[in-house]
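Two proteins, back to back. First:
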Amino acid sequence: KRQELYDLVASMVADGVPIDGVGFEMHETQAGPEPGVITEMTKSYQKLGLEVAITELDVHTYDVDQQTQIYGDVMAEALAAGIRDISFWGFTDKHAY
């Protein structure tokens, strides 16, 4: 899925379609994202000249310590990769996925 979307966006950029950036939706479970994936994806889109944002971020787990760790890991990797815009999904865990 990731590669297909990247290929589509790269093709559109190559064709001159005016695209300024992309947004990642990250609805994470207790496993969290694989380390390095955020950086890899971000850098690939930045090479196309695009801004990258996390447009939806939530972590669904009932373990608050685990949730805190995953949010921290995601934020640290995202900021280190050059992402400057991060929006959280939902205002309460009660309505999370």
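And the second protein:
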Amino acid sequence: MKVSSTVLRRLHSLTGVLPVGLFLMEHLYSNAATARGPEHFNAVIRFFSSIPFLIVLELGLVGALLYHGLVGIWISFTGRSNVALYRYPRNWMYSLQRVSGLITFPFVLYHLWQFRLGRVIFGFELDYEVVRQTIVNPWVSFIYVLGVMAAAFHFGNGLWSFSIVWGIATGPKAQSAAGWVGNSIGAILYLLGMISLYGLDVPLLTIVISSAISVAGGVLLAYLPGLRARLALGAP
């Protein structure tokens, strides 16, 4: 039975919030425990490691993540744009949403390999010091600043399109409010991520410079004519 593209897009929108988006919020909030010191962070790790049927929850989450990521790539490179010029802020948001998704998906896979699959394959114990020694590498720090920023923006901006696709925000005022709420949530998630990195001894200057480079790079990618034609979709 052939599944319509509308159904695929609806499921793509849904999985981006439930469960992937909710997990992102929880994950960044929990990781901010690094700011309270190694003992508190290690206690958080022990708590989540003790959850019953954890592997089942993880497999379900990974399945939703893979679906959302792969369908998102398909949407990004097969959708046709009806936006000729960037005259309105939301046209930029459409493009940045696609760019941030194309950054977030490989970053999350990298993160899973580093701290989940690597843990299973190589059998190391995950704790504050293991994470800190990995993250303080300047290149890894940059990857994490870029990845967290992309993920936070992608989820926050995605909440706006989710509210439209599912009929939550139907009028101009409601859609504008949904945009402000989504972007505010994205900003909070970004700050939580940076707090986590700072708590792992990543220098503040590294965070600031990496953030600036990430923003400039994202805007440049969204503006490039070749990507603009592919990524600036005319519908959520």
